[in-house]
Amino acid sequence: MSHKSNSLKQLALQKFKKNFWGVFSFYFIIFIGLVSVFAYAFAPDSSQYANQMHLAIHSKKPGFKVSMLTIPSQLETNQSGFDKLFFGKKNADSEIPISVFKIENDMLTYKEYASDGLEGVEKTMRITEFPNNNPETFIKEKTFLFGTDKYGRDLLSRVLVGARISFFIGFVAVFISLVVGIFMGSIAGYFGGKVDALIMWVINVTWSIPTLLLVIAITLALGKGFWQVFIAVGLTMWVEVARVVRGQIISAKEMQYVTAARALGFNNYRIITKHILPNIMAPVIVISAANFAAAILIESGLSFLGIGAQPPMASWGAMIKDHYNYIILGKPYLAIIPGLCIMSLVMAFMLIGNALRDALDVKG
After folding, report:
1. Last-in-domain residue among 144, 165, 191
2. 139 lies in the same domain as 275
3. What pLDDT shows up at residue 362?
4. 25 near 349, Cβ under 8 Å?
5. Residue, of 339 and 302, whose pLDDT is higher
6. DSSP state of 121
7. Which domain holds residue 131?
8. DSSP per-residue letters across 242-257
9. How many domains does the chain have?
10. CA dist., res. 146 & res. 61, Å (int)
11. pLDDT 10s digits, 143-156
12. In the list 41, 47, 177, 216, which could disulfide-bond 238, CB 3.0-4.6 Å?
């Protein structure tokens, strides 16, 4: 007969598995993570940052179709398959939306696409400019499932690539906040006295500054960019972790197992890392899940203000900033789609945080 272990970890795991929304959120976050990592493999526009612009077809509705003529470039782009998969294709080819075309007398004649009933410009090219003298293979019908943005870029591709920033900022920011917060909280809670007073003063000063203003100040000091935002958000979220860790250690250091560890001659570093921290990580895990959601919202707000990820990098917050005025112009989906993406990812982290809180509650 197999023996079931009733360890706290297994009991917590069993409780978590019974929470439908927690399990659903977990798999949803895994799905978004895979999409973020392999965004360029899923995106219809696999160019870097999905930044292929077609101003002639800007702000088109979801499901819009058009014939696209690709004019091959003579420039060679030496790029490895790994680089293409994770960082996008360096696309030197030109893409032109066209309405009609014909081939006769070794010439390709096409008419550029024009909306609102306008007549497009008619142009000609020699078929010798195309490999194998076969231009028809470079004309394909392209479908924009989510439509196009105000620059004529594929909105679906921008959403997929933009998921990277919103998803990974959660991991980087929470990692930074855990490293700084656990270190500061552990020292303050374990040693107490003047050390505790000094660290609590730093925590209270940092806490008193509005998060968004502090992030803006750090971002301006470090410069605008991708990693600067990650670091800035992480450095503003450590105070919550530090306060929780400090409070837990103040309670735990009076327990008998800590007294026994001191009696055995273990040093302070080992007592904190090997004995106390493993026993107080439950509330830290819960607050980390909430910090994931907070980091995503902060980054979206920074991108909306224009000091987050910089163009042409795709970001959900920047997409809302670029298209929020289209809500009153009859094309609200340009802002609603990235807004729903932010909402769903934040909701997933909040639900998994609630599920972890219930699962790790020893009184339950």
Report:
1. 144
2. no
3. 56
4. yes
5. 339
6. P
7. 52-144
8. HHHHHHHHHHHTTSHH
9. 2
10. 7
11. 999 999 999 999 99
12. 177
> Residue 47: inside a domain, yes or no?
no
Q: What is the strand order of the sheet 139-144 is part of?
A: 122-126, 107-112, 94-104, 64-71, 139-144
Please say whether the beta carbons of 148 and 113 come within 8 A: no
Instruction: Supply 205's token pair.
Output: 């000063």
Question: Would you state the structure tokens that stand for residue 235, as one six-digit string?
Answer: 């450095």
Strands (DSSP E) found in the chain: 64-71, 94-104, 107-112, 122-126, 139-144
Let me know if residue 12 belongs to a domain: no
**Tens-place pLDDT, residues 271-284:** 988 888 888 888 88
**Does the pTM of the predicted model rise above 0.90?**
no
* One domain for residues 117 and 262: no
Residue 36 lies in a domain: no
Residue 75, class by beta-carbon neighbours within 10 Å (0-12 exposed, 13-18 middle, 19+ buried)? exposed
Q: How far is CA 143 from CA 49, 67, 68, 80, 147, in A?
A: 19, 9, 10, 28, 8
Q: Are residues 253 and 232 in the same domain?
A: yes
Query: Which candidate, 310, 161, 293, 289, places its Cα nearest to that of 228?
Result: 310
In a domain, 7, yes or no: no
Q: What is the DSSP string of 186-231?
A: HHHHHH-HHHHHHHHHHHHHHHHS-HHHHHHHHHHHH-SSHHHHHH
At 94, give phi and psi (nearest 5°).
Answer: -100, 135
Alpha carbon distance 14, 10 (integer Å): 6
Residues 167, 123 share a domain: no
Q: DSSP label at 142?
A: E
Phi, psi of 88 (to 5 degrees): 90, 160
Residue 28 has pLDDT above 50, yes or no: yes
* Residue 6 pLDDT: 53
Residue spans of beta strands (DSSP E) within 35-93: 64-71
CATH of the domain at 192: 1.10.3720.10
**Which of left, alpha, beta for 151 (phi over 0: left; psi -120 to 50: alpha)?**
alpha
Which amino acid would we find at residue 282? A
Q: Is residue 305 packed enough to be buried (19+ CB in 10 Å), middle (13-18) or exposed (0-12)?
A: middle
Instruction: Sort 363 into a burial class: Cβ within 10 Å, 0-12 / 13-18 / 19+.
Output: exposed
